[in-house]
Write a structure and sequence with these properties.
Blueprint: H1 4-9, H2 11-21, H3 25-68, H4 72-108, E1 128-133, H5 146-152, E2 156-157, H6 158-165, E3 171-172, H7 174-193, E4 198-199, E5 205-206, H8 208-213, E6 225-226, E7 232-233, H9 238-242, E8 249-251, E9 257-266, E10 285-295, H10 300-318, E11 322-326, E12 338-346, E13 351-360, H11 364-369, E14 372-374, E15 382-383, E16 385-393, H12 394-404, E17 412-413, E18 427-428
Parallel strand pairs: 4-9, 8-14
Antiparallel strand pairs: 1-11, 2-3, 5-7, 6-7, 9-10, 10-16, 11-12, 12-13, 13-16, 14-15, 17-18
Helix pairs in contact: 2-3, 3-4, 5-12, 7-12
Length: 431
């Protein structure tokens, strides 16, 4: 959530940020004007209520003095004034509560302000490539896509999943199920033993406040699955991990906090009709290793680069070709100030596909969560900065391994990094 004081002091900066995000200027100006008008009404009501309260207190004291002076007429007049003030205050209090709620509702759907260094653009075509790592695998046969490989070896069953759950689900069997488990275990071990993250096993069901804190609600409710018990299935472990510091005041010496979790994730994939309908690229249920950092404002940009390197290390250990891109203003996430995407090369598709996003959010989520820290040399608390990233998506890593390490006979060579997790197997095929 954006700071209302910043908007009040620099409304033109808000307009410029919304325009960079893709809004037309007239709409952005209307939004800023609406927020300022609500803020002014709220402040006017606060001042009015304070004045009424002060006058009521003063009049109450004057009643005592009037009675002491046996001035009954003055006392009665003052008592009538106090009664009128008491009767008038509830209406203003209700008006203030409504104005504050309306203002919160407007602020809740405003996106974060992109950093100045983020490239301007409308969509993924305007993202800027930062670097490429590794080389495309050379194959002397036409590479197959992961679903062709998986179905041929009997380890990937979309028909059975459709019978159980409908479209955008998969049943993995045998060696492919084991390889997916191996990939997740490899990632979580790497991040906890070498990258300094603390492993967390969080709930997969969360309440409204948790999703509001990470800015999934209210704007993106249609992307989520809600239970009949008023819980939501997490779209990513970012939600519970980031909310571990909600409504907390941390000591500066405890920062940074770094959390990681390997969890199932659930997304409705609203708006993706017709996209990636075959295979495992876009599923309603998938596994992902999440990385979350809680830092001071001064350290957050360096932490962003560190998080990116941790996610990259996964692909480097697996020997996968990838590139890093900086997302443009029109393609970056709602809560992000800046996002790096890691895109892995898929030989079967002959293209790069996103496998990780690493975002720095500034204090945008912290304001929604009221997550603060106490600086070592100051009495005043400050909002923490939050970061999140995929370290990485397990299903997409499985796809990349299958397509990168496929052989002409349909088998898949097991990368060296995964062999300890697969009982020393060097290749998988049918079974």
């Amino acid at each position: 959530m954006l700071d209302i004081r910043w908007i009040r002091e620099a409304p033109d900066a808000l307009v410029a940020a919304l325009v960079r995000r893709g809004d037309d200027r007239s709409s952005a100006e209307a939004v800023a004007a609406g927020i300022l008008a609500l803020d002014e009404r709220r402040r006017t009501l606060i001042a009015s209520l304070q004045a009424m309260q002060e006058r009521r207190n003063a009049a109450s004291k004057e009643i005592g003095r009037a009675k002491a002076a046996k001035d009954e007429a003055a006392a009665q007049a003052l008592m009538a004034e106090v009664t009128a003030l008491k009767e008038g205050m509830p209406a203003d209090e209700a008006a203030l509560a409504a104005a504050e709620q309306d203002l919160q509702d407007m602020l809740a759907v405003l996106p974060n302000v992109p950093l100045d260094e983020v490239p301007a653009g409308k969509d993924e075509h305007d993202n800027v490539e930062v670097k490429r790592v590794g080389t495309r695998p050379a194959m002397d046969f036409p590479p197959r896509e992961h679903f062709d490989l998986g179905e041929a070896m009997g380890g990937m069953d979309f028909a059975a999943a459709a019978k159980l759950s409908g479209s955008r689900f998969v049943v993995l069997r045998g060696q492919l199920a084991r390889m997916q488990r191996a990939i997740g275990q490899f990632m979580i071990d790497l991040h906890t033993t070498e990258h300094g993250y603390t492993e967390v096993a969080p709930p997969l069901l969360v309440k409204d406040d948790a999703l509001y804190g990470t800015a999934n609600l209210p704007k993106f409710a249609e992307d989520l699955f809600k239970t009949t018990a008023e819980h939501w299935l997490i779209p990513t472990a970012e939600v519970p991990l980031t909310n571990l510091v909600r409504e907390e005041i941390l000591d500066e010496g405890a920062l940074p906090l770094r959390f990681t979790a390997l969890t199932q994730c659930f997304r409705s994939e609203a708006g993706s009709a017709g996209r990636d309908t075959r295979g495992m690229l876009r599923q309603h249920q998938f596994e992902k290793v999440e990385l979350v950092s809680i830092t001071t404002p001064e350290a957050s940009l360096a932490e962003h680069e560190r998080m990116l390197s941790c996610a990259e290390a996964v692909l480097q250990r697996l020997g996968l070709h990838y590139r890093v891109v900086t997302l443009c203003t029109g393609d970056m996430g709602f809560a992000s100030q800046k996002t790096y995407d890691i895109e892995v090369w898929l030989p079967g598709q002959d293209t790069f596909r996103e496998i990780s996003s690493c975002s720095v959010c500034g204090d945008f989520q912290a304001r929604r969560m009221n997550a603060r820290y106490r600086p070592a040399d100051a009495k005043q608390t400050r909002f923490v900065h939050t970061l999140n990233g995929s370290g990485v998506a397990v299903g997409r890593a499985l796809i990349a391994v299958m397509e990168t390490y496929q052989n002409a006979d349909g088998s898949v060579t097991v990368p060296e990094a995964l062999r300890p997790y697969m009982g020393g197997l060097e290749a998988i095929g049918r079974g």
